[in-house]
Amino acid sequence: MTAQSTLDTLGTMLLSGGVRVVDLAGPLGPETPLLKLPEGFGDNTPPIEVHKISEYDEHGPYWAWNWLKIGEHSGTHFDAPHHWISGKDYADGYTDTIDPQNFVGPVNVIDCSKESEADPDFLLEVDHIKAWEAEHGEIGAGEWVVMRTDWYKRNGSEADFLNNDADGQPHSPGPSVAAVEYLIGKKIKGWGSECIGTDWGQAATLEPAFPAHTMLHANNMYGLASLAQLDQLPAKGAVLIAAPLKLVQGTGSPIRALALVAG
Question: What pLDDT score was predicted for residue 254?
Answer without folding.
Answer: 98
